[in-house]
């Protein structure tokens, strides 16, 4: 008779809910050796962990944070910031979780991570706050602890008044609202002694010497091409406009162009004339001062009394030579670009409206001419986006909203620096016009995703606290943490991640002319923009720092090997809304939004370069957003590079989560979202 078979070891499932932070109070101080700490659930004050000198030398030493969520309190507790904390809330990288001493106010209020400091004696001191409760999938065999199913999972249950015995250092489990025997204790290894490291070479980037999978440059029902192909890579002139004759359309499906004969205006003598005649008459006059420029702009924008003070301030702060260059060279170049619009762009771009997948390809020269008209505020019907107006679901495009006085303290400098970025762009394109093309694609995701039965394994992910999306993420699919009206506050007071992208890549601003606000299942893909500007800092401390010369190669359509995708996250401002982001319908919305952006058609599957999307001012939890984007990228067949924008502790935490998922080799379905 054969011996009975040993039953297979029990394997714990990994649940997405186990990664989500629970409200808890902080206990009294307790030291621990071997870099282990037990943190029961009802915690009342900040806890410090002092690592001895021996542990400092252990490169692989882990901090084990045990989370007891027995109190069953709500998740995502709002972070309270004192008046002293608010003194240093500006000048930080986008969406960095809040650090009381260093980080921006635009941080995730729900992101609480361990803080690490070093005393003068060289001893590491780690201030620990509750980390994400989670279960490590592991083999349980021969354990002294009782294994009890809890909410569909397996967890180790401790007896009442039991304790953790860790290297002869015993930490009693404190009693709280819920008896310890009914609490789940989760253990997550978090190695704080990690270095950011280099992005792995196998993180796929757009090819420098290969052709993207694109066909001939021809119009199709789903793609409007405003230029004639093919692109001549050896030529030094932009592609010509298509068609060769002017097409004037004035309807609800196309941009209402400044030169349209359907745009009427009442002249000073009371006669009704084409508005373009007034624009031409005002702009052909030589302008020697800011007052001349303002008078010209207001002459064809009757009924408005814009002061354009921020533009005036930028001009006044120029040196005498810079001011002379502006009025003698840059401004006349902008005017020429604007007035030549009828020959540069011979038909109006279609509106990329909600509910439709469509692409628009234009030359960089056409984008520059359209932006010159936006600079001079010539677009009709686009001076307001108030509810009930014709374009109330579209972003603003005329630059008067950026040029007017700023009434928000601290944002005047931000506006002026953005204006400097745009003036540098016009200086560049009026002296030497780029010859390439760019494409804007509105994408709608129509398929129903079976997340619950997905057999897709998680793709490779790399988390780093060093570098930025627009620098180290070059050649990847770079994520724009977008407003549903693309560009957000780029033409007013905004100066966070999206607005900064739109002024260092100024050609992106033209998308605001024809892209309607994004719906929940839509994203905007922007292919081929050229970078013109360098910058430092963030928010109120944002500063223009000069030229960038973008030497990236082009594809056979003449587009730079640069691709950005705009996806807008849900806002979770306020304590109640921050809790709601963990509801399944909210998570599902973010999954669909991310997958829509990452499932780009027809291009090589490059890695996704992203970060704390929807955190910061939007109040999202960085750990949840990491999981959501990782799931979506994996489903789209892409690896993921995640930038924490200088937050070392968050990097270590996310790497621990990544290690957990990777070691278990689970599928997306096995993450066990309650679909």
UniProtKB/TrEMBL annotation:
Residues 160-170 have a biased composition (Polar residues). GO terms for cellular component: cytoplasm; nucleus. Its EC number is 3.2.1.143. The keyword Hydrolase applies. InterPro entries: PARG_cat_C (IPR046372), PARG_helical (IPR048362), Poly_GlycHdrlase (IPR007724). Keywords: Hydrolase. GO terms for molecular function: poly(ADP-ribose) glycohydrolase activity. GO terms for biological process: ATP generation from poly-ADP-D-ribose; carbohydrate metabolic process; nucleotide-sugar metabolic process; regulation of DNA repair. Residues 451-651 form the PARG catalytic Macro domain. The active site is at 480, 498, 499. Residues 160-180 are annotated as: Disordered. The keyword Hydrolase applies. Residues 318-442 form the PARG helical domain. Substrate binds at residues 483, 497, 538. Belongs to the poly(ADP-ribose) glycohydrolase family. This is poly(ADP-ribose) glycohydrolase. It comes from Varroa destructor (Honeybee mite).
């Amino acid at each position: 008779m054969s011996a009975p078979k040993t039953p297979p070891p029990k394997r714990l499932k990994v649940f997405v809910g186990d990664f989500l932070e629970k409200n808890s109070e902080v206990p009294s101080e307790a030291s621990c050796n071997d870099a282990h700490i037990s943190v029961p659930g009802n915690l009342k004050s900040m806890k410090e962990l002092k690592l001895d000198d021996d542990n400092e030398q252990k490169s692989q030493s882990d901090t084990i944070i045990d989370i007891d969520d027995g109190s069953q309190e709500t998740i995502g507790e709002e972070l309270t910031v004192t008046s002293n904390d608010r003194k240093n809330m500006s000048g930080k990288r986008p969406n960095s979780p809040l650090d009381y001493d260093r980080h921006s106010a635009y941080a995730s209020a729900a992101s609480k991570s361990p803080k690490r400091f070093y005393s003068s004696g060289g001893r590491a001191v780690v201030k620990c706050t509750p980390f994400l409760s989670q279960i490590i999938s592991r083999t349980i065999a021969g354990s002294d602890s009782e294994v009890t199913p809890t909410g569909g999972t397996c967890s180790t249950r401790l007896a009442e008044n039991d304790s953790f015995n860790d290297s002869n250092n015993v930490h009693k489990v404190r009693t709280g609202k819920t008896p310890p025997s009914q609490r789940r204790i989760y253990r997550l290894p978090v190695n704080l002694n990690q270095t950011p490291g280099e992005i792995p070479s196998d993180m796929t980037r757009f090819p420098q010497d290969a052709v993207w999978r694109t066909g001939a440059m021809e119009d199709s029902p789903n793609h409007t091409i405003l230029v004639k192909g093919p692109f001549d890579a050896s030529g030094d002139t932009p592609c010509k406009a298509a068609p060769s004759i002017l097409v004037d359309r004035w309807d609800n499906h196309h941009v209402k162009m400044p030169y349209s004969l359907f745009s009427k205006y009442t002249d000073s003598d009371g006669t009704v004339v084409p508005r373009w005649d007034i624009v031409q008459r005002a702009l052909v006059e030589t302008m020697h001062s800011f007052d001349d420029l303002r008078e010209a702009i207001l002459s064809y924008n009757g009924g408005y009394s814009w002061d354009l003070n921020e533009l005036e301030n930028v001009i006044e702060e120029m040196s005498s030579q810079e001011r002379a260059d502006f009025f003698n060279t840059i401004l006349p170049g902008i005017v020429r670009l604007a007035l030549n619009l009828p020959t540069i762009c011979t038909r109006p771009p279609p509106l990329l409206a909600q509910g439709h997948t469509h692409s628009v390809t234009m030359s960089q020269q056409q984008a520059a001419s359209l932006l010159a008209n936006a600079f001079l505020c010539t677009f009709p019907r686009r001076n307001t986006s108030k509810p009930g107006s014709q374009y109330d679901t579209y972003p603003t495009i005329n630059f008067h909203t950026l040029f007017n006085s700023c009434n928000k303290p601290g944002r005047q400098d931000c506006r002026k620096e953005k204006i400097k970025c745009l003036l540098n762009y016009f200086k560049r394109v009026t002296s030497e016009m780029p010859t390439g093309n760019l494409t804007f694609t509105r994408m709608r995701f129509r398929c129903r995703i079976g997340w619950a039965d997905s057999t897709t394994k998680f793709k490779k992910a790399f988390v780093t606290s060093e570098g930025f999306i627009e620098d180290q993420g070059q050649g990847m699919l770079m994520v724009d943490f977008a407003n549903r009206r693309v560009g957000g506050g780029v033409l007013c007071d905004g100066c966070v991640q999206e607005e900064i992208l739109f002024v260092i890549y100024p050609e992106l601003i033209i998308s605001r002319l024809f892209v309607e606000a994004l719906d929940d299942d839509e994203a905007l893909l922007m292919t081929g923009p050229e970078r013109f500007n360098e910058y430092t800092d963030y928010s109120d401390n944002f500063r223009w720092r000069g030229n960038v010369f973008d030497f990236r190669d082009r594809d056979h359509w003449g587009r730079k090997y640069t691709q950005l995708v705009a996806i807008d996250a849900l806002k979770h401002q306020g304590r109640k809304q921050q809790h709601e982001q963990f509801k399944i319908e909210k998570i599902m919305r973010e999954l669909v939004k991310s997958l829509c952006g990452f499932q780009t058609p027809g291009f090589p599957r490059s890695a996704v370069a992203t970060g704390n999307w929807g955190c910061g001012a939007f109040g999202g939890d960085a750990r949840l957003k990491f999981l959501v984007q990782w799931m979506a990228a994996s489903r789209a067949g892409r690896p993921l590079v995640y930038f924490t924008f200088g937050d070392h502790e968050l990097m270590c935490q996310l790497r621990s989560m990544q290690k957990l998922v990777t070691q278990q080799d689970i599928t997306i379905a096995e993450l066990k979202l309650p679909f």
